[in-house]
Amino acid sequence: MKNKLALITGSAKRLGRDLALSLANDGYDIIIHYLESEKEAEQLKGDIEKLGRRAFTYSANMKFKNEILKMKDWFEEQFESLDLLINNVGNYPIKKISELSLEEWDDTIQTNLNGAFYMIHSFLPFIKNCEGNIINIGYAGSESIRANTLNTPYAISKTGLLILTKSLAKDLGNQNIRVNMVSPGQLEFSIDLPKNLKKVIPLQRAGTSTDVYQAINYILNSSYITGINIDVAGGHLL
User: Fold this and answer.
1) pLDDT in the model for residue 21
2) I need a surface site. Which of 54, 140, 191, 211 has the fewest CB within 10 A?
3) CA separation (Å) from 163 to 104, 111, 142?
4) How would you label 135-173 residue by residue, b for 16+ Cβ within 10 Å and e otherwise?
5) What is the CATH class of 4-232?
6) Where are the domains of the chain?
7) What is the Cα–Cα distance from 187 to 137, expressed in whole angstroms?
8) DSSP 8-state secondary structure symbol assigned to residue 30
9) Mean pLDDT, range 10-27, rounded to an integer
10) Is residue 1 pLDDT above 70, yes or no?
11) Beta strands in the chain (DSSP E)
12) What is the 3-state secondary structure (H, E, C) of 216-235?
């Protein structure tokens, strides 16, 4: 049986790391993308190899097209196909929109939205080679447009990513490439975890990386599902 290969952006720490380990447990070799967390990426590489899977590390800034193109060239030298691309990177500035700098705005939009498109555009030929999957990581509530004053560019970027997800799903369906989104809510390691958690989340707890992976695993094992967004939020925003 052919070894499956997954590339996860922003996978050296937190959610990305946990998803990488879960996929490795399920038989995937993993490409660990990171920006500055080299030590954590190398540690994860070792952890994955202990599971009997192959792991590779690569550093690139998602907001720069030329760095992603170099990553594609590096990939092409070693691999012919990519079974799974997870766009997980997400800049998250917590600041009022009126106080946001132009650089903070640009960094967030370019990394979260443009970077995801650059990755898909660059790696699509390899995904086509094996009729693979693309999963974009969004944020809970992105299908309901509402005012968001504390992380506006993040909300805009993830809403744009949702539209990109649905558009690609429709465009690539005739090639048997499925494109979906998984949108976590408040996770255990969220930097803005509310103090009144039990009052705002019906399931009365923060989410875990395992909760997110269960949604991803459901998508990967559901061959007739494309273009959907799964909120993994414990009922938050109902």
Assistant:
1) 99
2) 191
3) 22, 16, 10
4) bbbbbbbbeeeeeeeebbbbbbbbbbbbebbbebbeebe
5) alpha beta
6) 4-232
7) 13
8) E
9) 98
10) no
11) 4-8, 28-34, 55-59, 84-87, 133-137, 178-184, 229-232
12) HHHHHCCCCCCCCEEEECCC
